[in-house]
Design a protein that fits this description.
By secondary structure, the protein is α/β, with parallel strands linked by helices. The protein folds into 2 domains: 3-40, no CATH class; 56-201, Rossmann fold (3-Layer(aba) Sandwich). It is built from 7 helices and 7 strands. A 7-stranded mixed sheet has the order 3-2-1-4-5-7-6, with helices on both faces. The longest helix has 20 residues, at 62-81. The two termini are 22 Å apart. 35% of the residues are buried.
Length: 206
């Protein structure tokens, strides 16, 4: 069985278990366009160019996940100390870490513990059942108004969710300082003026 066939099977299994396409995209670290194709495989439709990332050997082990979170923290401060940034607010100490559901939550939790900062949780619009779908901050964790925030997730795929979070934070009186991810599929330096710090940049060569 090819890796593509395996992805198709995984996507259909997750759908049968009640996952939404947005949740499937997060589970498989793929774009919504790719997940839509995997689920429908419409004739004549072009297979989206995407890269599947499976990091479950780390995400499923608490100690390894903690080390990954600390790598993200060290990578950011190393870049700031080397003068990689030019924006003044980049050197400001964050007061809150915003974990994007679902994979960003454990990472942001571990980092916020290490930094002694607040923890906020963001539910992206692609997980929403509202019409039209909207993103929101969980009421069970910290609010973001007046906070200097770091946005944390595992992967940047299309960048749409990150743009959504940045706009939400600014609209609700927060200052997004930077975006931290493990894997960046876009290879971009910033999203709407907010710098991106990734551990790995993933490139597809055709």
């Amino acid at each position: 069985m090819s890796s593509l066939d395996e992805l198709i099977q995984k996507a259909k299994m997750l759908l049968s278990e009640g996952h939404s396409p947005g949740q499937i995209a997060d589970e498989l670290s793929l774009s919504m366009e790719t997940v839509t194709w995997l689920l429908t495989q419409q004739k004549g439709a072009v297979i989206p160019k995407d890269v599947h990332i499976d990091w479950t050997t780390i995400s499923g082990q608490g100690p390894l996940l903690d080390e990954m979170a600390m790598l993200m923290l060290k990578r950011y401060y190393a870049a700031v100390n080397e003068g990689a940034g030019t924006r003044q607010d980049e050197v400001d100490l964050p007061t809150a870490f915003v974990g994007i559901a679902i994979s960003g939550i454990p990472l942001a939790t571990l980092i916020s513990v290490g930094e002694g900062a607040k923890l906020a949780i963001y539910h992206p619009a692609k997980h929403s059942t509202a019409d039209p779908p909207i993103g929101s901050i969980s009421g069970n964790f910290a609010t973001v108004s007046g906070e200097k925030c770091i946005i944390v997730d595992d992967v940047i795929t299309s960048g749409k969710t990150m743009q959504e979070v940045v706009k939400y934070l600014r609209r609700h009186g927060a200052v997004p300082l930077s975006i931290w991810v493990i894997f960046d599929k876009r290879g971009i330096k910033d999203i709407d003026g907010v710098p991106v710090y990734s551990l790995f940049k993933i490139s597809r060569i055709d």
